[in-house]
Structure to design on (409 residues):
């Protein structure tokens, strides 16, 4: 056992030595926690909040000289990652530090005044996946609002955007589709780090009723916005069960919107989450050929036959295609699922998505899209051409408006 522990410690040290990028928590530490001295600190985090040796930000702040960690705040999945996706989180005491843990993914998703009464500064340290529908950025935004209302400080310990700092896709979320999976009017893929996004939300008046919080962002060191996550050398800790690798974050927008309908298996329940499009009635070889014949930039498709372990099609032999992103910059990641839906509608007219999917799921589909227009326009003919302009209409304007918040070249 002792030898195994030493081996793990040595492996962690090797990872740290290889890292090209220091996350915000390491930069904060190397500066002696100067901005937190004498302050009572609250922390929103989960298992992704670690340094390059996999030490939790919870434990780092708990041990930091001159810093008093007084509260933890649990988003989806829990601060230690022991809660299943979508399940409510309860209040409890962290057994390692003895610090109280308040749930902000249960009865409330916004820290209450009672939860924040003993806190001077609330810190956010979570690895994001770069997609609007991932709930952690919603947690960050409503926590900023809570701090602004109570005149509390807010700090973001920055981390990379695994989809990339230049990848922007999708329309701005519209007012009638604002929800915890589209909390703010930003594109589906927004091309900012958590710290950059926090600055954008704060300075663009998107927090509460145009509130402004006392915001500090601790930037990373060594990061450039064109970096692939693997290039950072940082260890990847899965932010949710179906994002086991940095590559999974890239595939999440490829099929995640369609996945809301439960219409076919998208790799969840198998070993390739968000990489697949499979159903009993699909001819794998024919679908792969049709999609490859379209020569979609940065994408290749191969036929695949699977028997899912759980989720859609559990225990059934189904087939379809596996997606390969060969050029992330060029690939229309979020439109890929609509190209698949178009081809399937042409191959199987009686299987058109919106003629067969559960209507009770349409509302969630719309919220994830950030607009009812996408479903309403696409369902008329099941053609990407009917939604492409609308889906991309806000990309360039957002690119321009967000550039001044870039912390990295």
């Amino acid at each position: 056992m002792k030898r195994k522990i030493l081996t793990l410690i040595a492996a962690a040290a090797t990872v740290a030595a290889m890292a090209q990028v220091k996350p915000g928590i390491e930069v904060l530490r190397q500066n002696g926690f100067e901005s937190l001295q004498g302050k009572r600190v609250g922390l929103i985090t989960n298992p992704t909040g670690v340094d390059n040796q996999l030490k939790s930000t919870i434990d780092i702040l708990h041990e930091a000289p001159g810093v008093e960690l007084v509260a933890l705040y649990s988003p989806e999945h829990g601060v230690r990652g022991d809660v299943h996706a979508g399940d409510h989180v309860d209040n409890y005491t962290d057994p390692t530090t003895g610090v109280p843990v308040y749930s902000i993914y249960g009865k409330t998703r916004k820290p209450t005044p009672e939860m924040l009464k003993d806190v001077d500064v609330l810190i956010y340290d979570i690895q994001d996946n770069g997609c609007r529908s991932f709930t952690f950025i919603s947690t960050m935004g409503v926590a900023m609002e809570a701090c602004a209302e109570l005149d509390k400080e807010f700090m973001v310990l920055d981390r990379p955007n695994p989809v990339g700092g230049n990848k922007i896709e999708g329309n701005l979320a519209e007012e009638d589709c604002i929800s915890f999976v589209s909390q703010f009017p930003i594109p589906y893929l927004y091309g900012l780090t958590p710290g950059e996004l926090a600055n954008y939300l704060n300075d663009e008046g998107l927090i509460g009723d145009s509130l402004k919080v006392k915001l500090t962002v601790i930037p990373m060191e060594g990061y450039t916005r064109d970096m692939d996550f693997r290039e950072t050398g940082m260890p990847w800790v899965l932010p949710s069960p179906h994002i086991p690798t940095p590559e999974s974050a890239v595939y999440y927008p490829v099929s995640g919107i369609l996945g809301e309908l439960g219409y076919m298996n998208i790799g969840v329940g198998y070993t390739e989450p968000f990489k697949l499009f499979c159903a009993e009635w699909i001819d794998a070889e024919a679908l792969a050929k049709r999609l490859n014949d379209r020569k979609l930039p940065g994408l290749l498709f191969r036929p695949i036959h699977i028997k899912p372990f759980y989720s859609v099609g559990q225990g059934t032999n189904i087939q379809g295609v596996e997606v390969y992103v060969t050029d992330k910059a060029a690939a229309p990641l979020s439109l890929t699922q609509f190209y698949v839906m178009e081809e399937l509608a042409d191959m199987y007219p009686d299987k058109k998505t919106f003629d067969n999917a559960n209507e009770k799921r349409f509302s969630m589909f719309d919220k994830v899209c950030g607009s009812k227009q996408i479903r309403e326009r696409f369902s008329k003919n099941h053609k990407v051409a009917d939604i492409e302009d609308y889906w991309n209409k806000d990309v360039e304007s957002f690119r321009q408006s967000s550039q001044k918040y870039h912390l990295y070249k």
In short: DSSP finds 15 helices and twelve strands in the chain.
